[in-house]
Amino acid sequence: MNRIRKYALSALAVLFALVVFVVPFIFIILMAMKDKQQASLINFSWPTHFQFFANLIEVVQARDYMLLTAYVNSTILTVGSVSLLVIFSAMVGFVLQRRVAWWTPWVDFFILAGLMIPPAVVPTIWLLQSIHLFKTLHGMVLIEVAYNLSFAVILYRNFIATIPRELDEAAIIDGARPLSLFFRVILPLLRPVTVTIIVVQSVAVFNDFVNPLYYLPGKENATVQLTLYNFQSQFVTQYNLLFMNILLITVPPLIIFLFFNRQIVAGMSAGAIKG
Amino acid sequence: MTAITAQPTRTGNGSTGRRPRKGAHYPGWFIMPAAVVYAILFLVPTFASLYFSLTRWTLFSSEFIGLDNFYQFFREPFLSQALINTVIFAAVTSGLKVILGLLLGVLLTSRIAWRGMLRSIVFFPVLVSTVGVGITFTALMHPTHGAINEALALVGIKGPGWLTNRYLALYSVALVDVWRGVGLATVIYMAGIVSIPTDYYEASRIDGATRLQQFFHITLPLVRPAMYTVIILSFIGGLRLFDLIWAMTRGGPGFSSDVMASVVYKQYQAGYYGLSTAGNVVLFILIALLAVPLSWFLNRRVTTR
Amino acid sequence: MAGLQLKDLRKDFGTVEVIKGVNLQIRDGEFTVFVGPSGCGKSTLLRMIAGLEHISGGELWIGDTLCNDVEPRDRGIAMVFQSYALYPHMTVHDNFGFSLKLARVPKAERDRKVREAAQVLQMEHLLDRKPAQLSGGQRQRVAIGRAIVRNPEVFLFDEPLSNLDAALRVDMRMELSKLHQQLGTTMIYVTHDQVEAMTLADRIVVLNGGIVQQIGTPLELYKRPANLFVAGFIGSPKMNFLDITAGASADGLTSLDSADLSGARVRIAETAVAPGTRGTLGIRPHDLRLSAQGAVAGEVQLVERLGNETVVNLRLSSGKHWLAVLEGDAEVGVGERIGLDFAPDKAMLFDTDGQCI
After folding, report:
1. Could you give the count of Cα atoms lying within 13 Å of A220 in the half-sphere of its Cβ?
2. DSSP readout, B1-63?
3. pLDDT above 90 (res A187)
4. Whole-angstrom Cα Rg for chain C
5. Segment A97-103 mean pLDDT
6. Which residues in chain C touch residue A162, judged by CB atoms under 8 angstroms apart?
7. In this complex, do C98 and A166 lie within 8 Å of one another by their Cβ atoms?
8. Closest chain A CA to residue C99
9. What is the mean pLDDT of chain A?
């Protein structure tokens, strides 16, 4: 009796989850496969003419292969910001955890502030312009680093607390100076957190829409999110192409998700439950 | 005896020749790179915003006008509406994520089949582009052609204009935000739930508790830290949201679904930089006024147990 | 090779003084053990010698160099931690060679030294493993090997055997002894286990509350403890104590008065004690013998038969409990009233300040 109820509950749950969470994705895929007329109906029909690859090619070629440029930009942005983020925040987390100085409460405060205070966008544009970083990819990289430091530092600080101090002491006796201690002994041991941060932050930066919208206007520097947004007006009558675009920019996070599911989940719940 | 030949390693004065200071092995300058980037690109604009929000600003010239910008937020309907909408939006999405996330979390940590796949399905929307989600649901929510209303029509219900009805637009976007974000809440809850020792459940089973009783008397109290995290995170996130609103309604119809973040952008587009910056400051104050006491209140509940 | 000198060493953490003026001379090549209860400051003292704790006052000399402000790596020391502190992400080979790599020693020489150290510890076959793949005893030896490679003038050991199970501990103790014989380097060893101290040390330093209680060879500490604390700390089972009042002296023997004693006499080495002086009598459980007309009488509470000896828990008339270790299989039963006696030479008298008379 209970067994039946359990299966019934499971079946109901699966059905519910499928409908709510999977159907929209099925919709995206279907739309991406349709031709222009059928796509404009935006309904849930099976494509009559299978145009997946034609759509794919057309989207990629649009506006002088803007999508490819966007992919390159997004990749540079993601790789650049995440690399800097890892090194900078690990260094901060390390010193913060191992040493209590007069500035420790201040740093704690600023970390918290970074999590809560919304960035002041127009003043940031004003600042970026005055140091000639506005509309530049490297400026954007630094912005992403600045905005994501708090989260990463917290993650590193909590994890470093689990590395016994005796390891530091053994290295110090062995003759390690601070940089050697950090790069040769501590950083290799931070690999789990580093992987989590790389994965989580890569997805976050890749999907970031609002910040490039403000700080990276212009065709040459467009990221994939901005490109999609701009295509909305261009493809207003070509939903099939629009949804093909959506499909294409969902692929990288999907790949990361398939390979690093565990790390993502661990990272999100670890960072969230503040120690 | 093996000959370990080498000169003694003691060199006496040491290479520094100086007295080793307390923090010598954990140097303060390790903080520098991050601090520089953070201070210049985040702190400076934040402090600057406090000044510029009090001006009429064109990026080249600023004219001090005192609290005028802030008065506008309460005078002009399209601005004050955004203020109200922001709070409503945050409350609605946060509330739904907290409740639904908990239910999903309990479901996905119980012994149902296909647990792993379900967890992935529920969580995946968190990783998808917000703009993509916005465009997709805009299509699904189309008043006449959209799949949602067509499905409702199948059972004889005439679906409303989800995004075209000025009274519904904000809530429709809120529902999409919940769809997208409940997976994260679920994951956080799951982490909290699996950390509850099974001993409690076993003891209660011996005492004769039903599943429902177990939920209310064991799960719910012990999952509180996770719940408070979800509340704070989703609330602050809801207050700051921009992407989804912009992708789906641009604040429309009219300004019925504007929130602080979209107003900040609109004023920026219109060239009213002072007003836009004031919007940032208002949002900041809003978060400080609402989220900080909330966080403090919740954390107190946890520690005084 | 170097000896050490600690001159009035002090350490305080804020307002709490943890090490209160330690004076110590350690000869080159000696195996010295710091022993004492938890919190006595022995680990702190070791870490001050290592350079991991700042010295608040006094002087530390390693060899003929004043080392108060010298960095740990320049003091000519190597340390074996209680938890071994092996670098988890490096192989045994790299763990050994890390200090050499930091000193930019060329690879060929590095490998040679690593191999030498591995030979001493018979670990050549483990060089490519990572710490996680080793047993507790093997990890212990890697920690020692890492120290050996540095060719230090002083080895420092911080309770290295605490994390091992009992059988392994005995084996490792012997290995450490052998190592000391082989290398002949000065070694300073910290432990709370007085058995380890007694078996390993050339000289023992007993610490309590940041103050040195006594320094001496194991036998000196056992036979002639300087005060109550050392007497009670060294030796297992613990020494028995009793409050007494000195009586008349004759022939170098002083009689003692106490509710629980009759006819007990003690040989005092130095000047006679005035009758009426109060003090404490100390007698080790092993020095008590069955005697019908013995000085001590009491009711047997517990008997533990170990085969080669019998441990008897005795309740004296005042209610105090004493332990006696009798040879072989003693014929005593629970509830019996028995008498015990001791040779006057074996007893020790302590004055009201706890010092040995």
Report:
1. 3
2. -----------SSTTT-SPPPTTTTS-GGGGHHHHHHHIIIIIHHHHHHHHHTTEEE-SS-EE
3. yes
4. 25
5. 90
6. none
7. no
8. A174
9. 87
